[in-house]
Design the sequence.
């Protein structure tokens, strides 16, 4: 090997070295940097190099010398630092506190609702967020090109495929795959193409209820919802039903709870009436039962659906719906004790 090749090979060796201990570093010093080390040998050899090569080889040799010296110095420093660091640690001290996350307020409310309905004998069901036209609209009696479809601004993915606009689609799926009696609630995320504001967002959450059995009546619907409201909002909460329209229920109603108009917030929330609308409901339309393969001569049922954001906003005094989706820890941590 020529001197140049030896310098080259030394550089490669040094670059590939890793030291773990003081002892390894000391071996390195002896083998490479000491009087009897490789570097010194190369300087001896350098003396014999013809003078026209001296300039170029000399500078290469110097470079590799600096590399060796720096490798030694830096490794020494970091080994010493590592040592003093580990000596300074008091291993008996408690570790840093881990921040424990908290449940999202919407999830807290959803869980509270689920718990109440489970006590009333409802099970849980769900369906896909990307839904076909049948489950989101047609089976629920929204005729094609009927203005009722304009009630909800839909995000279409393909002509017959959209993001579901309500959890009512899960009703259809449950009725198609399950024989009555059916008693189920379906919480989930829904999507609407709406302008984002303090009161609406392009996605939000609903909880849907469905009860199908022999002889189910509007009285059962009212009683179930009364019980829910008493559990969730308090024993003395007043409710009222107003006639309404949904394509998939007949008759249809909306249910309000009474907040009063004493505080400014109540006035604002209820637009001065004292009543806050919290859900839509009704008797499942005979045609919908038939669409889903349920004999409407034998069975009847009721359904209801409510928005989780709206109820959470009311329950915890949240003024802007967008705060649910901003992931600001200062907001979320306020619900810590509830989760
Ligand atoms: N799907 C309706 C909506 O998103 C809410 C609804 C109304 C659901 C009446 C129901 C119902 O199950 O019976 O506006």
Sequence:
């Amino acid at each position: 090997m020529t001197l140049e090749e030896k310098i080259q090979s030394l550089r490669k060796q040094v670059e590939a070295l890793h030291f773990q201990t003081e002892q390894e570093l000391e071996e390195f010093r002896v083998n490479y940097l000491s009087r009897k080390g490789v570097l010194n040998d190369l300087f001896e050899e350098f003396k014999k190099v013809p003078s026209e090569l001296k300039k170029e080889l000399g500078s290469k040799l110097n470079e590799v010398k600096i590399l060796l010296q720096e490798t030694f110095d830096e490794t020494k420093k970091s080994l010493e630092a590592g040592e003093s660091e580990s000596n300074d640690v008091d291993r008996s001290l408690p570790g840093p506190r881990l921040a424990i996350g908290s449940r999202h307020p919407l999830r807290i409310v959803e869980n509270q609702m689920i718990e109440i309905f489970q006590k009333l004998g409802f099970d849980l069901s769900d369906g896909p967020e990307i839904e076909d036209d049948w489950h989101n609209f047609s089976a629920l009696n929204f005729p094609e090109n009927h203005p009722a479809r304009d009630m909800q601004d839909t995000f279409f993915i393909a002509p017959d495929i959209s993001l579901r606009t309500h959890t009512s689609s899960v009703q259809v799926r449950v009725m198609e795959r399950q024989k009555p009696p059916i008693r189920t609630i379906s919480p989930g995320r829904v999507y609407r193409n709406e302008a984002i504001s303090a009161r609406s967002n392009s996605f939000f959450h609903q909880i849907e209820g469905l009860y199908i059995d022999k002889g189910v009546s509007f009285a059962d619907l009212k009683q179930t919802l009364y019980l829910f409201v008493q559990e969730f909002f308090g024993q003395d909460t007043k409710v009222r039903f107003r006639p309404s329209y949904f394509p998939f229920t007949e008759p249809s109603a909306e249910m309000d709870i009474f907040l009063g108009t004493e505080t400014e917030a109540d006035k604002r929330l209820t637009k001065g009436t004292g009543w806050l609308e919290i859900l839509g409901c009704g008797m499942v339309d005979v045609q919908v039962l038939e669409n889903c393969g349920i004999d409407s001569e034998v069975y009847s049922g009721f359904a209801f659906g409510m928005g989780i954001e709206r109820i959470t906003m009311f329950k915890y005094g949240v003024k802007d719906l967008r705060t649910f989706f901003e992931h600001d820890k200062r907001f979320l941590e306020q619900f810590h004790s509830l989760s």
